[in-house]
Amino acid sequence: METIFPSLMHGFVVTFQDHNFLILTIGCAVGLFVGAMPGLGSVNGVAILLPVTFLMTPTGAIIFLAAIYYGAMFGGSISSILLGIPGASTAVATTFDGRPMAVKGRAVQALMTSAAASFVGGTIGVLLFTLLAPPLASFALRFGPAENFALMLVAFATFVGLSGDDVWKTIFSIAFGLLASTVGLDTISGQPRLIFFDLPGFYHGISFLVLAIGLYGIGEILWTIQLARGEVTMTKPTFDKASFKDGMKCIKRGFLTMNMGSFLGFVVGILPAAGATPGSLMAYGIAKTMSRHPDRYGRGESNGVAAPESANNAASTGSMLPMLTLGIPGSPTTAVLLGGMFIWGLTPGPMLFSQQPDFVWGLISSLYVSNLMAAVLMVLSIPLFLAILRLPFSILAPVIYILCITGGYAPTNTMHDVWLMVGFGLGGFMLRKLDYPMAPAALAIVLGPLTERNFRQALIGSQGDPSVFFSSTISIVLMACTVLLLVLPVIKRAISGGDDSDQPGTHPA
């Protein structure tokens, strides 16, 4: 512990060198733009700009790419809130309440809450990273297939447990997402399955972004037009003193939620191959489950923005921990960063801290600075972002459709995904008319492949013995949490005397 502070101070000296601070600032600005563009996200942004770093020192290169990563985590909420289109999979949970807030003219409050939550999540994440890196990395290694499967069940249970009277609709939505996640090649055998009509486009599976942009982009526009039945009018946002004060109230009210999301996101982020998306969805589900007013979620609840945004930023920091200490990428973006480290001639692992202190501590200190820089840039850009919502709906709707098509085409560069996205948009519109929740479907298609792979790997390793899922303390505790979340609504009704007549059913997020 006594060596951490001097090492961190040395890292700040490295970060604030003129060229390093300049590329950090540029990286944050580029990251905000990359994160806000549907279909890009941090993975594509880092991968596209990786060749640029070959002209830099390894320390400058990792600072630049980490700044892009942080900026993209902040920027992903921008299109989610303003247009209802997730900038990346990590920001889909932000759409659930961020877009309704914008429609009600509270885009300023949503963006301020997002920036504050991202800052809190990033700060807590990097503090935990600085203080607890070695023991947390060792703890993450204790998660095998059985433990990871139990963790996935906890995520599903958060959504089933909060569904109120619509449990079966929630289960249907999860089943739909799980079915969509199995399309393509079998994760274990490599055999094709559910290749509908023998269309070759299904061989690469159904991209999460295709489903998310279809449901929350095209589906949202259709829903808005249907509600208006003609001329569509939206409450125009204003960035004035009153909206700023209201935004500060939202931040103050969501501080505990931000802390919950930060710690949860960081823990999920350090798990190999988990990443920020499961963490943000789980944080949203837990925030809604523990809320006194769960019926407000999906209708413009500021805590519904605070929870996922704090979680995905903390998880993005946590995912760097196994990359540096163990050489195991914690997310797709850190997998690209890991490849960059090998290209720069660096070998990740415990010895990296002693052999390359400028690199390691320069990176860690740059995370503090990038976190603050991205928050400042996002807040300063709010008036520019609001100009988007002041466009007439007759102009805004076609722009959203164009961005949706671009985002659907970007992952695989095939028209098959564009048509699939349109189909999901029509399906999402019908689900909203029938009062089915869409958030569980988004969760399921993200966690479906991870859940199936860990389930089957655990059974293969135990030769088909199901007791493997209760063979460790970690898996037993997680299974107990799953059961608790499933019975939580029953407990709440029992405590309140069984009178839940004034509680409306779950509405689509």
Describe this structure in a few short sentences.
By secondary structure, the chain is mainly alpha-helical. It has one domain (4-495). The chain has helices at residues 4-15, 18-36, 41-49, 58-82, 92-103, 107-140, 145-161, 167-181, 208-228, 241-253, 255-270, 276-290, 303-318, 320-326, 332-343, 352-355, 357-380, 382-389, 393-409, 415-433, 439-461, 473-495, and strands at 184-185, 192-193.
Output the keywords.
mainly alpha, disordered C terminus, single chain, 509 residues, 2 strands, two-stranded antiparallel ribbon
Low-confidence stretches: 499-509
Question: N-to-C terminal Cα separation, in Å?
Answer: 44 Å
Radius of gyration: 22 Å
Sheet with the most strands? 2 strands, antiparallel
Envelope shape: globular
Number of domains: 1
Mean pLDDT over the residues: 79
**Strand-and-helix sequence, N→C?**
HHHHHHHHEEHHHHHHHHHHHHHH
Strand content: under 5%
Q: Counting H and I runs of at least 4 residues, what is the number of helices?
A: 22
User: Order of strands across the widest beta sheet?
Assistant: 1-2
For the secondary structure, the number of strands is 2
Helical coverage, percent range? over 70%
The class by helix and strand makeup works out as mainly alpha
Describe this structure in words.
- There is one protein chain.
- With 509 residues, this protein is an all-alpha fold.
- The protein has one domain (4-495).
- It has 22 helices and two strands.
- The protein has helices at 4-15, 18-36, 41-49, 58-82, 92-103, 107-140, 145-161, 167-181, 208-228, 241-253, 255-270, 276-290, 303-318, 320-326, 332-343, 352-355, 357-380, 382-389, 393-409, 415-433, 439-461, 473-495; strands spanning 184-185, 192-193.
- The protein has a two-stranded antiparallel ribbon.
- Strand 1 and strand 2 (192-193) form a beta hairpin.
- The chain is globular, with a radius of gyration of 22 Å.
